[in-house]
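New to this. Explain these tokens.
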Amino acid sequence: MAQVLYLRLCLPAEPRKFSPSSSSSSSSSSSSKPSLKLPQRTRSSNVSIPATTKGGSSRLLKTQKLNSEVSPHRAVSAVRLMRIELGGAFADLLNEKGKGSGENEMGYVQRTLGFRTRELNHHDLRLVTDIVGGTIRWRRYLDHLISSLCHDKDISSMEPLLLQILRIGFYEIVKLDMPPYAVVDENVRLAKVALRPGAGNMVNGILRKLVALKEDEVLPLPRVEGDDRAQARALATLYSHPVWMVRRWTKYLGQEETIKLMKWNNSEPSFSLRANQARGFSRDDLVMQLNALKVPYSVSPHLDEFVRVKTGLQTVIHAGLLRKGLCSVQDESAGLVFIFSCSRLYLVRDETHRLKISGLVVSIVDPQPGETVIDCCAAPGGKTLYMASRLCGQGLVFAVDVNRGRLRILKETAKLHQLDGVVTTVHADLRVLTDGEALKSNKVLLDAPCSGLGVLSKRADLRWNRKLEDMEDLKKLQDELLDAAAKLVKPGGVLVYSTCSIDPEENEERVAAFLLRHAEFRIDPVDRFVPPDFVTDGGFYFSNPVKHSLDGSFAARLVRAS
């Protein structure tokens, strides 16, 4: 299912002392357990906070500390960033109640820092989303600045919470252009209350140095010069990406296009809403609702059911459009799909950070009423539901996935969208399923696990989680799944292979290797199904983030000989 890992933080009774000369790196902290909570507190008052039990009744929690002077969005952002870096959360959306994936974010603040702030309002939620996503994207850049202003250039021993407070302050000053005096004051207060007065003094000194350098326009940034390796390292810092990605993209795209791609990855992402026509809710109806909610939008130039939104997604969630199954958050090309199930908005991903294909790739499958389609690696079903909606109640989509929990979410969402009559789930590993008497169909879609390098603008944390060595493992898995999916295709049928990657080794090279192993298949050009601007010279579909302002994705349509 859409899993979020929860990390139990061990909070020592005594703080680990931090010298003003110590610092931290962009990676996780040292092997010793971090000191996250300290006994010294200021400006706190004891209040009783009511909570609700599972049965709905109210109970009174033990006396908790409420600090009304600490900025709530900064406290939540700092704790959330710490959980993300230590493996306890993803950088995904908050839902309409200010929750992440299941628990109140303020609850994490209480358990980690020992106090609560006032509740998050709508403006706070927006700031949490901006600060968490932006701080993660710009982590390498921010850490370079922090280490440059610390006496000890190796900041790997810095306390995790202190590092996150500094990152937030640097991001707010350098990238959000917030008033420096307010940023310094608020982050110093957070450090003093959550850690100790000395930590606040250190934050004050470093942030003031940054403000002075920014005003003089002399930030200590590297120059792009020297040999290829040196230039790649400088670009990786300036645009906050791993060095291996910069070198790989420079090899395939050239330096100029690589810089454009990194700028796209660092830009604020937009999301697309797909109107659920299976429930009689058209794009015109969706536009009417967005106008009423005063949410800015633009209609998709490529797909009739889609509308793009840059801001206001929280407002759409508040209004209940997703909960009622009237629309879904789904990218037009390849990228993130959000499934609203059990009153919760899930960011769909799995162990390999696979992101779901939708929109234009479904157009390449071209499901028609009365047909049977097999969706491999399907759950929790963004593209499954889109294909099912295009069957108009006639036909069947077999959704195959190895994860039972994710299939359960798919079934719940299909029922919500009134598509459960044309969706059948199959719990199986595709590679094992095809060993026996397998399903057969004229149309098979394999949305393969991939690196996700085409969707880094939406997946802020993915660039730091993906490693170069992952690529070989993923290519091997893609080959195995392609061979298995080929067994499901009837003579004369179609296999669509798709990824949300822009890497040719996962795309064109995997198709070429497949065709060498399977002479019975040939390439069927996709120009009949998508606009010509998305068609490559080889007849494949490819969306370029820089060129098309869409997430990067790839698809090949392969026909089996009769």
About this structure: Residues 1-63, 93-103, 334-357 have pLDDT under 50 and may be disordered. DSSP finds 20 helices and 18 strands in the chain. The first strand starts at residue 45 and ends at 47. The two ends are 38 Å apart (CA to CA).
